[in-house]
Amino acid sequence: MFAVTGRLDRDPVLGRFGSEPGPRPGPGRADARPGRRRPSALGAAFVLAGLAMIPWVCYLSATLPASARDAHWSLAWVGLDSCEALALFATGRFLLRRDDRCVLTAVGTAVLLLVDAWFDVTSAAPGPDLATAIVMAVFVEIPIALVCAVLAARVLRTPFPRG
């Protein structure tokens, strides 16, 4: 991973030597505009929503059947992989244009890849299918998700120069 991030530092597009970080809002400035919802209220709403999910997850873990058949299994996987392809394409397109919106698509891509890895491994049949799922998760999906997360963090910290 360090070799990948080191290459990202030296990359002329991703490294952005000499660029200054964009202005950051000061204390209280986020609430200064009229009609804006207070970030603390929105944050509290998300925390409550997360806490409300805990009983639901417990309920599901106790009541879901051990196995199920799905008539749309192939459609679900094709849909997920199509979303991954679109997210990778969009991230690359934004990067080529030096567009800060690559942060959004990079985070989305990372999440999709991690979800794909999780469901590949947890839904694979024991034997060669499980081995393939683990190899794909460890050597393809998780590393690409990490690169996407590092990319998003770096662009957030140091946006592309405007011009």
Protein architecture, described:
This protein has five helices and no strands. The model is unreliable at 16-22 (pLDDT under 50). The radius of gyration is 20 Å and the shape is globular. By secondary structure, it is mostly helical. The longest helix is centred in the C-terminal third of the chain and has 30 residues, at 128-157. The protein starts with a helix and ends in a 6-residue tail after the last helix. Helix 3 (73-96) packs antiparallel against helix 4 and helix 4 (102-123) runs antiparallel to helix 5 (128-157).
List the SSEs and their pairings.
Layout: H1 2-10, H2 39-63, H3 73-96, H4 102-123, H5 128-157
Helix pairs in contact: 3-4, 4-5
**What's the β-strand tally?**
0
State the distance separating the first and last CA atoms: 32 Å
Largest sheet: none
Which structural class best describes the helix and strand composition?
Answer: mainly alpha
Please tell me how large the radius of gyration is.
20 Å
Counting DSSP H or I runs of 4 or more residues, the number of helices is 5
Give the helix level as a range of percent: 55-70%
Helix-strand pattern: HHHHH
Shape: globular
Query: Low-confidence spans: pLDDT under 50, at least 5 residues?
Result: 16-22
Question: On the 0-100 scale, what is the average pLDDT?
Answer: 84
What amount of the residues lies in strands? under 5%
